[in-house]
Automatic annotation (TrEMBL):
It holds the Pfam family CFAP298. This is Cilia and flagella associated protein 298. It comes from Seriola lalandi dorsalis. The lineage of its organism: Eukaryota, Metazoa, Chordata, Craniata, Vertebrata. GO terms for biological process: regulation of cilium movement. Belongs to the CFAP298 family.
Length: 290
């Protein structure tokens, strides 16, 4: 199987396994789905700690308001009594006024946090170092784990306006957010290798040959952004090793330089003519007036 190390810019994303006969249209489609799926898991995981600490989100028209303002405007959260965590809520006010403050108890909080860590590990960038290829099934498994944990803690479900529920139902609105800049749709996704765009309509083997054991670094890019920067000749780890070797070499040269100090040659004991001068009475001769 051909192994593709997928990057965006200089940032490593995941390993992807395919064959040389695979149409690039299919490869791009699969890589895009995994890439965007991992982003979805990350977005949900970023909301889980807030859910565990402060409960579900308030309706949009109540977010950011103080208690006095809510009373004055006669607003009411109709989902507060419906979306109650298992084991009863623990009140912990949300300082920014985004969530209702009815948090799960410690046991339920542990369920959410543990599942979040497991889901993140499943699609982590560290899988590249472990030489594990990420598949769409792994992304779906991470989403199912998160969905199951939320259902355990909130058996009645989350409010329809909660970002976690919206992510699960593919209704998320990312417009105007930093997250929207990271998403790449299938139509605008381009795959680059060796400063060349791998064109749709061709097969992978037209670029890399027929060796199924090939490993290469490919970069995903949005259409219209031009060619991504080429891979450096040495990676970060190799550069560190080279710097360490250079430093050790410098230290060795310093020690050798110190060992080459020949000032001892001016000492009396190093004079080869010392014995001859002693027999001839030429030692301790001082020139000058007494």
């Amino acid at each position: 199987m051909v192994q593709l190390h997928v990057k965006r810019g200089d940032e490593s994303q995941f390993l992807f396994s395919t064959t040389v006969d695979a149409p690039l249209e299919t490869v791009i489609q699969q890589i895009t789905a995994i890439y965007n799926g991992r982003l979805k898991v990350d977005r949900i995981c970023s909301e889980i700690p807030e859910l565990a600490d402060h409960g579900v989100t308030l309706p949009p028209n109540m977010q950011g308001l103080t208690e006095d303002q809510i009373v004055e405007l006669k607003l009411r959260d109709e989902w507060e009594d419906k979306c109650v965590p298992s084991g009863g809520p623990v009140f912990k006010i949300d300082e920014i006024g985004r969530r209702n403050g009815h948090a799960p108890n410690d046991k339920m909080k542990e369920v959410l946090m543990r599942t979040m860590e497991e889901a993140k590990a499943l699609i982590s960038k560290k899988q590249v170092q472990a030489n594990v290829c990420v598949t769409m099934d792994m992304v779906k498994e991470a989403l199912d784990q998160l969905r199951g944990a939320v259902m355990i803690v909130y058996p009645m479900g989350l409010p329809p306006h909660d970002p976690i529920r919206m992510e699960f139902e593919d209704r998320e609105d990312l417009s105007g957010t930093q997250a929207s800049l990271q998403v790449i749709t299938e139509d605008e996704c381009q795959l680059w290798w060796a400063a060349k765009e791998m064109q749709r309509g061709k097969k992978l083997q037209e670029y890399i040959g027929k060796n199924e054991k090939t490993k290469l670094v490919v970069k995903i890019q949005k259409k219209g952004q031009g060619a991504p920067a080429r891979e450096p000749m040495v990676n970060e780890e190799q550069q560190k090793q080279m710097m360490m070797h250079y430093y050790r070499r410098q230290e060795e040269l310093k020690k050798l330089e110190e060992a080459d100090d020949d000032s001892h040659l001016d000492s009396e004991w190093s004079d080869r003519q010392a014995l001859k001068k002693q027999f001839q009475g030429l030692t301790n001769i001082k020139w000058g007036p007494r």
